[in-house]
Specification:
Layout lengths: L1 E9 L7 E7 L2 E2 L6 E4 L5 E4 L4 E5 L11 E5 L9 E5 L2 E9 L3 E6 L1 H6 L13 E15 L5 E9 L1
Antiparallel strand pairs: 1-12, 2-11, 3-11, 4-8, 5-6, 5-7, 7-10, 8-9, 9-12, 10-11
Length: 156
């Protein structure tokens, strides 16, 4: 088991305002079609593949079988852990702090071929991006304001 922490502390430079978003984490898996992701059940999400921005996920764990690019706002709020399992065994758990969204991305075969720097070409089969973040829109800070957020990834 391993634990990895990521914390972002953002403070605009003096006299300036700042627009930003942030996120972190991808995971290598043996077979992306055999994973499931929990913690996103009954959650609103934006689907960037279909361009449909007003969706609600089912009550089932999420599985991947095609090009996936979604931004979830977990129904359980930022304290809801996100768990990636393979074959029923937990391989990753994300604990989030002020990271209100979760991105789930896999380019699948066609989109990975269109990406000049995606290697190996069939690498989509062994990767999943499950990214805790503040990514749904731009966050704005004025001078003197700060923002802090983080994610703890527990690898099994």
């Amino acid at each position: 088991m391993g634990v990895s922490d990521f914390t972002a502390y953002i403070l605009p430079s003096q006299g300036n305002s700042l627009l930003f978003n942030c996120g972190a984490l991808s995971e290598k898996v043996q077979d992306v079609t055999k994973i499931s992701i929990t913690g996103l059940e009954s959650s609103p999400y934006q689907d960037k593949v279909t361009k449909k921005m007003d969706n609600t996920s089912s009550n089932d764990a999420l599985t991947i079988s095609s090009f996936t690019d979604r931004v979830y706002t977990p129904a359980g709020g930022p304290s809801q852990p996100i768990v990636v399992s393979a074959g029923g065994k937990k391989i990753l758990e994300l604990a989030r702090d002020n990271m209100n969204e979760v991105v789930v991305w896999n380019p699948w075969e066609n989109a990975s071929k269109d990406m000049g720097d995606f290697r190996p070409q069939d690498g989509y089969r062994t990767m999943i991006c499950v990214e805790a973040g503040a990514v749904k829109g731009w966050l704005s800070l004025d001078q003197g304001e700060t923002w802090e957020g983080g994610v703890t990834a527990i690898l099994s």
